[in-house]
Specification:
- The chain has two domains: 111 residues; 256 residues, Alpha-Beta Barrel (TIM Barrel), CATH 3.20.20.70.
- The chain has twelve helices and 16 strands.
- The chain has a seven-stranded antiparallel beta sheet, covered by helices on one side.
- A hairpin with a 3-residue loop joins β1 and β2.
- α5 packs parallel to α6 and α7 crosses α9.
- Bound molecules: iron/sulfur cluster (SF4).
- Iron/sulfur cluster binds next to loops.
Length: 379
Amino acid sequence: MAESTELLVTLKPGFTTVSPDRRTVLSFDREGRLYAYYKAGVTYRRTLASAVEVRYREDARRRERLSRAEAARLFAEVHRIAATCYRQGPAALRARFEEDGVLQWTPERLLAQEEAFYRVYKPISILPPDQYLSVVVQATEGCTWNRCTFCSFYQDRPFRAKSREEFARHVEAVKAFFGRGLSLRKGVFLADGNALALSQNRLMPLFEVVRDAFPGRPVYSFIDVYTGERKAVEEWRRLVEMGLHRVYIGMETGCDELLAFLNKPGSREELIRFVHDLKEAGVAVGLIAMVGVGGKEYAGRHGEETLAAIARMPLGPGDLVYLSPFIEHPGSEYARRRAERGLTPLSEEAIEAELQRLAGEIRTLGFKAARYDIREFIY
Ligand code: SF4
């Protein structure tokens, strides 16, 4: 443990960080719960259900998940460091720790957050990278389509929409679970997949619940072009008035043949028209394309047709294109069909090189491009 003179403290309205030395940083939400721990080049992030994701670099980016016993040891280590900081730190830090109850979060109590989390939520399968720090509310469960060959996000649950009353109870339970920890969360993510595919009549009451519970916070959600009821521009505008800020569209590819191979309905033209509608209504857009899907045989057409489609979209400064390295799940329908068609998977290095190339081309078009690694998802 470093001398107290080295101790750095940041007390923000939304969080507390304490750094006893240059190689160690502890971060707590305003309920006093650990959410991140950095130690000597390794970052540990606690999910809301108290799983711990470990990230570090060796030759490449590495990630692991701790076992429950390892997580308990890590929480104990953090608790010991926090207790020492409390004793040696300035009065303002002691006051903050007391106000937020930081030292009351014993490893056992922190581990018990798993049970508390699953009383409130069905598993959160995926979020866009800029949404990991939103508060997720599940207006629907599952996906309306659920048949894309590569996707396993919602296979554990059939699609269902909550009534206004049920959703309002869920939102209250979410708020209680976060407590003052909500101040770390800037936006609201309306989950699961395709919540926005509900008809306007069913959706508006759910937006009212969100607006009343989280006034002024921007709302985000996934939407697929091809499922659910198609909304008019005016209806999207109404949702913008109710707080909708950005939608994330699983574009996957601009190549229709590949899209059909993935069993995702729709077409490049429908997507382009849909993005025009959204932009006209004032909705920001996050497009997600998968790099490497379809293997070597599709690589050329997939890249070129995806870029050509994006080039025809009226994207602006608030929009972005996510490029997601494709992960083939063994045993998936995609893996079966890919083998049947004799398609050759791209290596990780080839996918990475293509991702960098596409990102460069998208930036040349004047649009924002970012990496979206589904393995880094955390909530
Ligand atoms: S529409 Fe989206 S969430 Fe649904 S199965 Fe396809 S990729 Fe998965």
